[in-house]
Amino acid sequence: MTKENWMPTVCYQCKAECAILARLEAGRIKEIRGNPRGRGKVCVKGAAGVSLQYSGDRLTTPLKRVGKRGEGKFEPISWDETMDIMTAKLRDLKARGEAHKLTANFFPHSITDPKWRFLNAYGGFINTALPHCDSAKIVACIMTMGGVPNHHIPPAWFTVPKGGIMIMAGRHAFGCLDDASAPGDILDAQARGAKLVVIDPIFTADAAKADWWIPIRPSGDTALFVGMTQHIIAKGLHDKNFVNNWVREGDFERLKAYLADKTPEAMSAICDVPAADIRKLAEMCAGAPSVGVDSFKGIMLGQALDFGHAWTTFLAVTGNIDNPGGQPLPDLTPMSPVEPVPAGPDLGTLGWHVTGPDRDKFGKYSFIMEPTWYEAQAIKNGDLKVLFTAESNPALTEMGQEEWRKAVCMPGEDGEEYRLEMLVCSEIMHSETSYFADLVLPDKSYFERWELLYMPWWYNFGHGLALRQPLVEPPGECRHSNEVFIELGKRLEPEYFQFKDDVEYYDIQLKGLGLSIAKLQEMGGLWSPGTMGFNKYKDAGGFGTPSKKIHLYWENLESVNQAMPRPGLAAEYEADPVDYPFILISYRTIFHQGSGQWTHNNPQLRDPVSGLYENPVLINPAAAKSLNIEDGQLVTLASRTGEVRLRAMLTERIRPDCIGMHHGFGSRVGRVAATGKGISDNLLIPDSGMTLDWQDLVGGESHVSTRVRLST
Ligand SMILES: Nc1nc2c(c(=O)[nH]1)N[C@H]1C(S)=C(S)[C@@H](COP(=O)(O)OP(=O)(O)OC[C@H]3O[C@@H](n4cnc5c(=O)[nH]c(N)nc54)[C@H](O)[C@@H]3O)O[C@H]1N2
Ligand SMILES: Nc1nc2c(c(=O)[nH]1)N[C@H]1C(S)=C(S)[C@@H](COP(=O)(O)OP(=O)(O)OC[C@H]3O[C@@H](n4cnc5c(=O)[nH]c(N)nc54)[C@H](O)[C@@H]3O)O[C@H]1N2
Ligand code: SF4
Ligand SMILES: [Mo]
Question: Is the CB of 45 within 6 Å of ligand 3?
Answer without folding.
Answer: yes
